[in-house]
Amino acid sequence: MAYHTLLYGFAFLPLCLVLYQLTPQKHRWKVLLAFSWLFFYMISRKLLIYLIGASIITHYTGVRLELLRTEEEREKESAAGKKKKEIRLRYQKKGRQILALGILLLLGVLVYLKYYNFFVRNISNVLDLSVLPFTLPEKKLLLPVGISFYSLEAVGYMADVYWGKIRAEESLGKTALFLGFFPQIMEGPICRFTDTSDTLYAGKSLEWDNLSEGYIRIFWGLFKKLIIADRLAVLVNQIFDNYMEYSGAVVAAGAVAYTVQLYMEFSGCMDIVVGSGRVFGIRLPENFRQPFCARSASEFWRRWHISLGVWFKTYIFYPVSVSGLVKKWNQFGRKHAGKYLTRLVTSALALFPVWLCNGLWHGARWSYIFYGMYYFTLILAGMAVEPVRDRFLGVLHIHPDSFGWRNVQRIKTWIIIFTGELFFRADGLRAGLHMFRSIFDGFDIRKFWDGTLLGLGLGRADFAAVIVGCIVVAVIGSMNENGIITRIRKARASETAKWCVMYGLLFAVLFFAAYGDGYQAVDLIYAGF
Amino acid sequence: MEKLIEILNEIDDSIDYSSEKRLIDDQLLDSFGVITLVAELEDAFDISIEAAEMVPANFNSAEAIWNMVQRLQENE
Question: B54 and A318: CB-CB below 8 Å?
Fold first, then answer.
């Protein structure tokens, strides 16, 4: 059962809503937990044990860290001056050990299930090249749904308790709900405890405003997923699964189509997720903010899969940037290398683990590692050429915020995004490199309109549905970017307008969604990560 | 405080630090700017900034940054 199925939207969610409303307020979070575990069980069956195990580890690590802080405060009260610093350092060390153990247990499971076979395969390949006649056996390992998402949430929660940013949750059940809340378990967003805890446990009664706006958001997500993404999946699969047969403009079209498919799919799923939270009055953080308006690769990542970017920034980028190694480099660099190089190397040292982890997080494949390194290189290169670019603009009297320059930057960013997604979707790094090279092999722009694309599984009506759908999404996106949607919301749209939007979206999905003969149900892409 | 404003102006002199209260929330100071600032602060005020301090509330305004610096100087 995925979020875009009838079972979820018209049975699971309404049943949960009814039982939630019928339960006394203080016990409503228990209904959400029961449905969350039921949802997980329906997808991953007995692998539910992993989620429960992760909840127990996370909870008790948090509780232990909280106890430690209380003990520290008590000792500090009766101490004075330098003694306080001593106490702080002693407890910091103890806390670090507990945190490390918690992280090791949680990430140990993730690394073992997700990367064991990848490492074994690569070690075996290396051994094959040497004289050692020895191969390590691969294992059949099943990955619980959402493990990459809830593991990061768990690590973030424990780190926040350790840093004193939040107090540990006292109830094991509530910690388990934070990690396993069903709308976000499959594809995120990767929430921080402070994002959701206020509304998640409040047990707020159902309200018409929340229900109507939540369901509008759900239908909007279905619109993106079923009308646009699932249609484009046909064309994308045809090109990427048979990439040896295509070259030039067709491969370029495949890269663009996959980028649009992935955006419509993932952001559509996030609309369903945020809407599903909203019907209960629970606010989940947004994961997308018009990513195609970005003017640079780094801005793109502040607008695309936002919660993953925020997680990496908070728990990897900043901790690495204030680590001993980077501090030592900073001191050395200031004396010997100058400000420009010091800043560049500091950024590189903090960025490298972020992008290595970003690539690996998506899966155990070299092409994902390449994808991470691709953005690492581009973002660093962007920083490196900043002074030259500024001088160039100054000489030519071009204002950095002028309309023309903004669009030049956007087009450059689109090319970066499309290229990155080509490698991301390709069946391995070798296939990605082949496809990238083949774009320049007899590129003929006329293929976009001479009927060639019609031979890739989609008819004229499909293309019309995709194009009209994309225009609708672009217009709404532009209204969002310019704050128009917020103003409409603040002005409180009339009930008639809400019903019109809801029915409009529902009928659009019913009449124009890609299902029936010629289409196959398309699984959620990010649920596979 | 003057020293702090001087450091901030070196990172980006187009911002009015006396009135700006949303340096991080409005992305006027990005993560690269923050790590440059942290290195400068550690050097100028002889403090050590830990990962726990890397929260928007500590960097959203010159005043918030100054409060953090003073707190860390007391703890040293």
Answer: yes
Kindly list the residues from chain B whose CB atom is less than 8 angstroms away from the CB atom of residue A193.
none
- List alpha helices for A363-385, DSSP H: 366-384
Assess B34–A contact: CB distance below 8 Å, yes or no.
yes
Owning domain of residue B57: 2-11+18-75
Residues A435/A241, Cβ–Cβ less than 8 Å: no
Q: For chain A, which residues make up each domain, given as ranges? A: 6-206, 212-288+426-528
Cβ within 8 Å of B, A 35-54: none
Q: By the CB < 8 Å criterion, does B28 face chain A?
A: no
A328 touches chain B (CB under 8 A): no
- Cα separations (Å) of A171 from A59, A128, A320, A372? 8, 51, 32, 38
On whether any CB of chain B is under 8 Å from the CB of A298, the answer is yes
Number of domains in chain B: 1
Please give the Cα distance from A375 to A380 (Å, whole number): 8
**Chain B residue at shortest CA distance from A347:** B32
Nearest to A322 among B30, B32, B50 (CB): B50
**A495 confidence band (pLDDT: 50, 70, 90):** confident
Digit-coded pLDDT (tens) for A16-57: 999 999 999 999 999 999 999 999 999 989 999 999 999 999
ipTM of the complex: 0.89
Q: Give residues with Cβ within 8 angstroms of A4, minimum separation 6.
A: A221, A222, A225, A226, A268, A269, A272, A524
Closest CA to A431 of A379, A370, A378: A370
CA neighbor of A171 nearest in space, from A283, A66, A309, A37: A66
How far apart are the C-alpha atoms of A133 and A118, rounded to whole Å? Answer: 19
Shortest Cα–Cα distance, B17 to chain A (Å): 22
Distances (CA, A) of A352 to A148, A305, A316, A317: 20, 19, 10, 9
- Chain A hits for B52, Cβ within 8 Å: 162-165
Q: Write down the number of H helices and E strands in chain B.
A: 4, 0
Q: Does B75 touch chain A (CB under 8 A)?
A: yes
Chain A residues inside the 8 Å CB shell of B48: 327
Q: What distance lies between CA A514 and its chain's CA centroid?
A: 25
- The Cα–Cα gap between A464 and A328 comes to 58
DSSP H/E element including A213: helix A208-222
CATH, residue B6? 1.10.1200.10
pLDDT at res. B43: 87
Percent share of chain A, pLDDT over 90: 68
